[in-house]
Automatic annotation (TrEMBL):
GO terms for biological process: siderophore transmembrane transport. Its main location: membrane. Keywords: Cell outer membrane, Membrane, Receptor, Signal, TonB box, Transmembrane, Transmembrane beta strand, Transport. Gene3D superfamilies: TonB-dependent receptor, beta-barrel domain, TonB-dependent receptor, plug domain. This is Iron complex outermembrane receptor protein. InterPro entries: Beta-barrel_TonB, Beta-barrel_TonB_sf, Plug_dom, Plug_dom_sf, TonB-dep_rcpt-like. It comes from Pleionea mediterranea. One of its GO terms (molecular function) is siderophore uptake transmembrane transporter activity. The keyword Magnesium does not apply. Residues 1-22 form the signal peptide. It comes from the Bacteria. It is found in: Cell outer membrane.
Length: 698
């Protein structure tokens, strides 16, 4: 049946091949000279620059000028424009889940996010930390996205896809800039971009600051509401009430380069972060978090000749989750009055990841470009703190007890190390055929070794058409929360877990009718083995993490990009995915079946532009244990007006959710660790909102 569903799209690809050859005679040498002038390059697919249409992967590039033109304020908003990718603000604290090709889970560890090539993964849960507050965009030069596996080059967690956030350097900043913004939900922002260049010495500094109350997410009922409905004690729930989504944020980035050295340093601070919808399914308007993230990335260009390039890279990433105000897992009066102050749990942790990496590329052979890399990584959960007023069986302790450095703490301090080596060869096997073959070996101190290959054959079918045949395998390393948790009344870790694996087969077509009109289509199929689920324990109320799941998925992604002239551009993409939990023969749930994204940019006057996007997110199926109806589709439309050259400044005005659609993302359904639905009416998102920005050069 899967093959039958994909036949129409394979047929469309064959039609593109025929059309490309039929029209090739009319595509003369003069046109060829400028045909690739507007083509974009990415480096995420092979580690070196490649035209997107010829890269051995399905890749998307989002540039800084596009981010500004469309009025995107966060990384999440920009990523929604990528075919087959959906950002669901439905994880803990409403933090973003970046879902690629329908692979969705509670903490979404299956998507790898990099900043300047360095992973920002939390070793505790495998995500980017719940206390994120999203990633602002003024320091971003470009975002490169791969849909599909990438472990053959990037190692762990490059599973369903990879996102590389490339920040601005001195070369990317024309002049020093400042900007301020005000908007709905008492949102205020300020930013600056600055640079200094003196010969080979280059320095850039960027800063972004935000304070916001967060949007009004009215939640009408929570898990405490269902307990209150028993009428065995006075009602305790804070519902109906708003999720707690306010925060203050600081982002500072520094880049300095001199000759063969480049040092990038980033610091993020999130302060007074609200508890979102609550960690345990009950609203908490009181609790507050803090989180700090520090990233240092030093690269030294060891060798650079006509045929040989060699780099050494050292990176250090430190992050934490801290509690500023006691977190109410359940409100005061919960459990029929057993907790008059509320069920309080304050988990904190501090982690760091250090990586040494050496990479080389050799092009001295006639038809080969060989890349070789190796490295060593240490991941260290070096401090864990916890205060709580309950024990492992949810019995009240009568007061808040500090269980730090005891066997009652929620997760023990631990570390792991890994060694990796990879090799990749780009082979010109014929004038119009290029084969990319690669393999990477990772050896971890806790779960053992894994080997992940890739093969990509790119056929320059004609001047207008490139056809790609792709295969890749990837793995996800078990997070510490899945292997080490021991003092939890519901979910327990398993130190014997194996990594999740995925095998993906794909065919893709990139067809350029002209510089003005380009098409893309890709069809994929994947299989996930050893998917980690929590399985109920016999004779106990707990569930333990096990490699028991198997997923199968298939779908397609298509794009049309049209540039009428320098003043008008239009793009449209459509994607469809089906992901099945093979254990129960049911949709995995949590991800949209169809997505459609339309955007246009119109410079209708020399100093004025009007840009629009409209995002259709299809219905979201429920998991096999969830009896609720599928979550309805929605359309989110945004519009941004730019007015430039108002003296030294420029102005932009944006409206988000223009038609005030009722946007909701799926709440967690029942599972093996929790039979109840905490938020049966799902998680409401932002309504119509307004933002005004003024920025200029100084």
């Amino acid at each position: 049946m899967t093959l039958l569903r994909t036949l129409p799209f394979v047929g469309l690809g064959l039609v593109l091949i025929v059309l490309a050859h039929a029209d090739e005679d009319n595509f003369g040498e003069d046109e060829f000279g400028g045909f690739f002038d507007d083509e974009e390059f990415v480096s995420i697919a092979t580690g070196s620059k490649k035209l997107i249409s010829k890269a051995p992967a399905v890749a998307t590039l989002i540039r800084a000028d596009e981010i500004k033109a469309m009025g995107y304020r966060t990384l999440s908003e920009a990523l929604e424009s990528v075919p087959g990718l959906h950002v669901s603000h439905s994880s803990q604290l409403y933090s973003p889940k970046i879902i690629i090709r329908g692979i969705s889970s509670t903490f979404n560890p299956q998507t790898l996010v990099l900043v300047d090539g360095v992973p920002i993964t939390s070793i505790v849960r495998g995500d980017r930390h719940a206390v994120w507050g999203d990633f602002p965009v003024n320091s971003i030069q470009r975002i490169e996205v791969i849909r599909g596996p990438g472990s053959a080059l990037y190692g762990a967690d490059a599973f369903s896809g990879i996102i590389n956030i490339i920040t601005k350097t001195a070369d990317d900043i024309d002049n020093n800039q400042v900007g301020v913004s005000i908007g709905s939900y008492n949102t205020r922002e300020a930013w600056y971009l600055s640079k200094y260049i003196d010969g080979d010495f280059k320095l850039s500094l960027t800063g972004e600051f935000i304070t916001t109350d967060g949007f009004d997410a009215l939640i009408d009922t929570d898990i405490q509401s269902s307990i209150d409905a028993l009428e065995l004690a006075p009602p305790a729930s804070y519902a109906p009430g708003n999720a707690s989504l306010g925060y203050k944020g600081i982002d500072l980035r520094f880049d300095v380069s001199y000759l063969d050295f480049d040092l990038k340093v980033g610091f993020q601070d999130r302060d007074n972060v609200g508890h979102g919808q609550g960690s345990a399914g009950a609203l908490d308007p009181v609790g507050r978090f803090n989180s700090e993230k520090f990233l240092a990335n030093l690269t030294y260009n060891l060798t650079k000749t006509n045929n040989w390039v060699s780099d050494i890279n050292l990176s250090y990433y430190r992050s934490n989750q801290k509690v500023e105000k006691d977190l109410l897992l359940f409100p005061p009066g919960a459990f029929f009055g057993a907790f008059p102050e509320g069920l309080i749990g304050n988990p904190e942790w501090f982690e760091r990841t250090s990586v040494f990496k050496s990479e080389s590329a050799y092009t001295g052979f006639n038809k080969n470009k060989i890349a070789l890399g190796f490295g060593y990584k240490v991941e260290d959960l070096y401090k864990v703190k916890e205060q709580k007023n309950f024990d492992a069986f949810l019995n009240p302790l009568g007061e808040l007890v500090d269980v730090t450095d005891s066997n009652e703490v929620f997760i023990p301090e631990s570390d792991r190390s890994s060694f990796f080596i990879y090799v990749q060869d780009e082979i010109q096997i014929a004038p119009d055929w290029e084969l990319t073959a690669g393999i990477r070996y990772d050896d971890y101190s806790d779960f053992g070794s894994t080997t992940n290959p890739r093969l990509a054959l790119v056929w320059s079918t004609s001047l207008k058409l490139n056809t790609k045949f792709l295969y890749g395998r990837a793995f996800r390393a078990p997070a510490f929360a899945e292997t080490l948790v021991v003092n939890n009344p519901i979910a327990l870790g398993n130190p014997n877990l194996s990594p999740e694996t995925i095998d993906t087969f794909e065919v893709a077509f990139d067809y350029a009718q002209s510089n003005a009109l380009k098409y893309h289509l890709n069809i994929y199929q994947f299989k996930v083995e050893d998917f980690i689920n929590f399985v109920p324990d016999d004779g106990a109320p707990t569930a333990t993490a096990q490699n028991i799941g198997q997923l199968k998925g298939h779908g397609f992604e298509s794009e049309i990009n049209y540039r009428a002239n320098d003043d008008f551009r239009f793009s449209l993409n459509l994607s469809k995915q089906t992901t099945t939990d093979e254990l129960v023969k049911h949709d995995l749930g949590g991800a949209p079946d169809y997505q459609v994204y339309l955007s246009s940019m119109w410079n209708f006057y020399p100093d004025s532009s009007l840009n629009l996007y409209s995002n259709y997110v299809g219905k979201r199926a429920r998991s096999s244990l969830d009896n609720r109806d599928d979550l309805d589709s929605y359309i989110n439309t945004g519009i941004t007006y730019h007015l430039k050259n108002l003296g030294p400044f420029n102005l932009s005005f944006s409206i988000k959710n223009l038609f005030d659609s009722d946007i909701r993302e799926p709440s967690e359904g029942p599972n093996n660790t929790s039979p109840q639905v905490a938020f049966p009416n799902d998680l409401p998102q932002y309504g119509r909102s307004y933002y005004l920005s003024i920025y200029g050069e100084i």
